[in-house]
Write a structure and sequence with these properties.
There is one protein chain. The chain has 15 helices and no strands. By secondary structure, the chain is mainly α. Among the domains are: about 120 residues, Orthogonal Bundle (Cytochrome Bc1 Complex, Chain D, domain 2), CATH 1.10.760.10; about 110 residues, Cytochrome Bc1 Complex, Chain D, domain 2. It is elongated.
């Protein structure tokens, strides 16, 4: 027994001696003392005390975009909303309220709907264009406490398209923003933009452009002074443009025009006896006087043109489709227009098929 204990003690002592010897040898081979300086210096920039807080993105105004908004794109943008909302007149309430006639209505205008407390507190305030713009951009930021789970729409153009389409969901759509209102919000937005300094190169370029512009203006004035030149040029352009338009309509594919007419379907019907919507039924409209449909509430601008004897000739229809508000200032038409002459010709060719006796193209 004592022999076994002696063996165990000898083993422990031997292990201690080996450990001490290993440490002594390691110190001889490795020098753990720190160097006076790094063998490879590393340059480290001073870190800022604190990162600046990110600024909230500025909400872009929507008023300047509404007149030229794309209604078809707005209707498409509404599709994700259809899970919670209906938009037809008299439509059912879902998780969210029905949105018929929403533009200009109060924030909590539907009796019996269980609005959030945040919306009920705003029940006396209307859904203006800018209020809708802010809410669609970031619902929870615009109205803290809302139950709206939608994350928001980042593109101001997408919001403008959707709001312009929502505006059509009414028997009496809210008026579009006036020029004064658009100018006011544009000035406010410009005032918030940081001022940029004009470099010497930019100043020189601006000077050159100004000089070229003055020269072109002087040349135009000189041409205008020639007797009868302006009248002759206008008459020639009108005649040439009319012939070109008729040729485009004659060569156009009416089926392409029918596809384009789907953009108008939110506001108009084309079939004989079709109902009026936000806009009038367009059966047999070509060749008729402006505002010819009895019983429809046309704008004052359309009624004034009717009194002047203006008709929906091919030239007038083409001009209106290109720029509704430009050709008929004061119209309630929110469609921004078709920029392509071929598209306008195709749509007019389709409209010719929606008539028993369309005007001839010769």
């Amino acid at each position: 027994m004592s022999l076994e204990i002696n063996k165990m003690a000898a083993a422990v002592l031997t292990a201690g001696v080996v450990a001490m010897s290993a440490g002594f040898v390691a110190k001889l081979l490795v020098h753990p003392a720190p160097l006076a300086e790094n063998a490879y210096p590393i340059q480290v920039a001073d870190r800022p005390a604190a990162a600046p807080a990110a600024e909230e993105p500025r909400l872009e105004p929507v008023l300047p975009l509404l007149a030229d908004a794309d209604l078809a794109a707005g209707e498409a943008a509404f599709r994700p909303c259809a899970a919670c909302h209906t938009y037809e007149q008299g439509g059912a309430q879902r998780v969210g309220p029905n949105l018929w006639d929403i533009v200009g209505a109060s924030h909590a205008h539907i009796d019996g709907f269980n609005y959030s407390s945040a919306l009920q507190e705003l029940s006396d305030e209307p859904w203006t264009y800018e209020a809708l713009n802010a809410f669609l951009a970031n619902p929870r930021q615009a109205i803290p406490g809302t139950r709206m789970a939608y994350g928001g729409m980042r593109s101001v153009q997408d919001r403008a398209n959707l709001i312009a389409w929502l505006r059509t969901l009414s028997d009496d759509p809210a008026p579009l923003p006036s020029d004064e209102e658009i100018e006011a919000v544009s000035e406010d937005a410009a005032a918030e933009e940081p001022e940029a300094e004009e470099t010497g190169a930019e100043a020189d370029e601006a000077s050159v452009e100004e000089t070229e512009g003055e020269a072109a203006e002087a040349e135009a004035e000189a041409e205008a002074e020639e007797p009868g030149s302006e009248v002759a040029a206008e008459e020639a352009a009108a005649a040439e443009g009319g012939d070109e338009l008729l040729a485009l309509i004659a060569a156009a594919d009416a089926s392409e025009g029918e596809s384009l007419s789907r953009r108008c379907a939110a506001c108009h019907t084309f079939d004989e006896g079709g109902p009026n919507r936000v806009g009038p039924n367009l059966w047999n409209v070509l060749g008729q006087s402006v505002a010819h449909l009895e019983g429809f509430n046309f704008s004052n601008a359309a009624q004034a043109m009717q009194a002047e004897g203006v008709t929906w000739s091919y030239e007038n229809m083409d001009a209106f489709l290109e720029n509704p508000r430009g050709w008929m200032p004061g119209t309630r038409m929110v469609f921004p227009g078709l920029r392509s002459p071929e598209d306008r010709a195709a749509l007019i060719a389709f409209m010719r098929t929606k008539s028993e006796n369309p005007p001839p193209l010769d």
